[in-house]
Amino acid sequence: MDGIAIRAQAIGKRYRIAHAGRTQGSGMIRDAIANAARLPFRVARRAVFRRGRAEPTWPSHEEFWALRDVTFDVAHGERVGIIGRNGAGKSTLLKILSRVTTPTNGRAVVRGRMASLLEVGTGFHPELTGRENILLNGAILGMKRREIFARFDEIVAFAEVDRFLDTPVKFYSSGMYVRLAFAVAAHLDPDILVIDEVLAVGDAAFQKKCLRKMNSVSRSDGRTLLFVTHNLSLLEAICDRAYLLSEGRVVSSGRTSDVVRAYLTSTSAAGHSARVRSDALRWIGIVNASQLTALRSDSDITMQFEVATGDRDLDGLDIDVAVHNAKDEIVVHAMSRVVGPPLKLTRHTHTVVSYTIKSPKLLPGEYYVSVYAADHERTLLWVEGVPAFTVTAESYFGVLEVISGIKSPIVPEFEMSLTDLAGAGR
Amino acid sequence: MGHDRARVALSVRASAPAAELRETVIEPSGGVTSRDLTDFWQYRELLWFLIWRDIKVRYKQTVLGAVWALIQPLATTVVFSLSFGRMVNMSSDGLPYPLFALAGLVPWNYFAAAVNAGSSALIGNQQLISKVYFPRIIIPLAAVLTPLVDFAIGLALLVAALFWFGIVPSPHMLWIAIFMLLAVATAAAVSLWVSALSVQYRDIRYALPFIIQFGLFASPVAYPTSAIAPGWRGVFALNPLTGVIEGFRSALVGAPTVTSTVWLSGVAVVVLFVGGLVYFFRVQGTLADQI
């Protein structure tokens, strides 16, 4: 495997999910004891009645494959992106590659030291000083004592915290904290750097610095980069190659731009997914879809969707809506609580919820909504990625071409003018 | 300017030739492999860093700091001396009762603190476990070793008490190291089992304080083994702490008699420890999923 940094062969990961939303881990030993106590009887009964092989049954568990048959190679010095919707298995894959958890089957070989920036600040202790935390965090990330001491000054300089080195980090601002944490991780000197959405931290200037560091990490001395993000433009800027994960499988791979396109088309075709389902409040669907196919950017958007109650009355209900663009960025978040008192719904009824968003000035493109409903106690309904409406291209400010250069998800109306100061006494 | 410094920092490293790169194989977890052992060796420094962290943090926010390590055994000794010594008139194998009680409490307090910390160590460090790889066994081990600092302070107190009662410690006291090794092994064995089990079964945490309290009275801390009916001594010896405390005490006043109790306790610890290791290594690969 010359020149290969990561080789994953048929990796699979199975989780067992307990019903009633409990994970396997938080079980109670009394249940296990009760189960174990019943086991001999079950076995005996099966033996007597000869109904197949006696297997211990754990009726309260359900299996779920977070990853299935994931195979890929990453060469040394390559910069590879991994994309996919939430729950596609990206984080599970990173956890397996960074050895946080083991796969259920398959095998992977990683050559060289791997550092993942998903662990920024892990193991920082608020009571310890910046200096002490650098040592501790370095050790946790797998650095040797002499390596930490050798890079100590670089880390401090990068984090720009020299003056507060002997202050407990609980007194740090969140910005300082993140800078210090990132600095330690970034100076791990890895052969393979794994980055998972880390750029959401810090201020803009620091993000830029991190980005530069990432780029130079692989460009200047041929290190390997594995990058997981939702930020598709960043992905295209950094990665040579990408893999698209969907429901735990690799569904597309190749040049980044091709994979990004595959991702965008797959998300619009995929339809919605339910994060939370309950009998108390069911999702029926968008009812005015035909009015939502070709909206103008500056028109009001009225979305009507239908929900149905179960066999109890609901009280104190909030129903929130978020609008996502094709890159899965939230561009509008509307909460019922903001515009009125908590809602009431009668049992066994169908209700149409109508949201009007006034002139959101969205860029042309496909839009999706997430709907979230909760009463005092719990989340009753949470659907994601429901294809909702399309905003068509039209002229802004009388110029259509301008759109392609706009970086923001919305285009507010704005004005600009110049004032000549020459005559003002200068 | 900060940017420039960072850039300088970056270019220092020349990439290592590919042949030198360490290869890591990731596979479904099973039992104990030689890879686990080499890994543990690679990460041995982390063990010391975690102990160092726990000690630092512990003394950072206390007014009395190390004084607590003195107050605890002293206060319990006073209570035991008044209740068992005076009221019950418990026999104490020829030692003055307060000294007898203190000599039992110092190793017992270590054990109780170690088991307490070791057993909850995995759950207490879940942020670490769910985000970074390192040999998981380091966490309960560090937690078990940290209370040795308090033990050392307690031991100094015990030596002072010996002089107070007119007993000059002999070189035989070095035997204490052997018995403490047994105590550490016992605490580690219990912690391996309980810490791993309590990730899956959270209610073990609620049972633990009760079990430790029970252990105080099931071990010869307040009373000597000679006070137990001979027929029951074999059962008592299965409690490894019986051998530890008995041996510890006898080493204070002369050459310890390594009785069959100590041997039996030793065997019990080895069985418990090896079992704990096997169980721990079997589940450690997926601890992050359950925590």
General description of the model:
The complex is a heterodimer of chains A (426) and B (291). Chain A is of the alpha+beta class. The longest helix of chain A is centred in the first third of the chain and has 21 residues, at 29-49. Chain A is built from nine helices and 18 strands. In chain A, 26% of the residues lie in helices and 32% in strands. Chain A has a six-stranded mixed sheet, sandwiched between helices. In chain A, strands 10, 13, 14, 15, 17 and 18 form a six-stranded antiparallel sheet that branches. In chain A, strands 2-1-4 form a three-stranded antiparallel sheet. With 291 residues, chain B is mainly alpha-helical. Chain B has one domain (33-290). Chain B has helices at residues 2-11, 34-42, 44-60, 68-88, 97-124, 126-129, 138-145, 148-164, 175-200, 204-218, 233-237, 240-253, 260-283, 287-290; one strand spanning 23-26. Chain B is globular, with a radius of gyration of 23 Å. The interface between A and B is large, with 67 and 56 residues.
Task: Give a brief description.
The complex is a heterodimer of chains A (426) and B (291). Chain A has a six-stranded mixed sheet with strand order 5-6-7-3-8-9, with helices on both faces. In chain A, strands 10, 13, 14, 15, 17 and 18 form a six-stranded antiparallel sheet that branches.
SSE sequence of chain A, one letter per element: EHEEHEEHHHEHEHEEHEEEEEHEEEE
N-to-C CA distance of chain A: 71 Å
Listing every helix as H and every strand as E from the N terminus to the C terminus, the arrangement of chain B reads: HEHHHHHHHHHHHHH
Beta strand % of chain B: under 5%
Work out the strand percent of chain A: 25-35%
The CATH topology annotation of the domain at 273-405 in chain A reads as Coagulation Factor XIII, Chain A, domain 1
- The averaged pLDDT of chain A comes out at 78
Overall 3D shape of chain B: globular
Instruction: Give me the CATH superfamily of the domain at 273-405 in chain A.
Output: abc- transporter (atp binding component) like domain
Count up the helices of chain B.
Answer: 14
Largest interface (C-beta under 8 Å): A-B, 67 and 56 residues
Query: In the CATH classification, which architecture of the domain at 273-405 in chain A applies?
Result: Distorted Sandwich
Give the domain tally of chain B.
1
Question: How many strand segments of chain B?
Answer: 1
Rg of chain A (C-alpha, Å): 26 Å
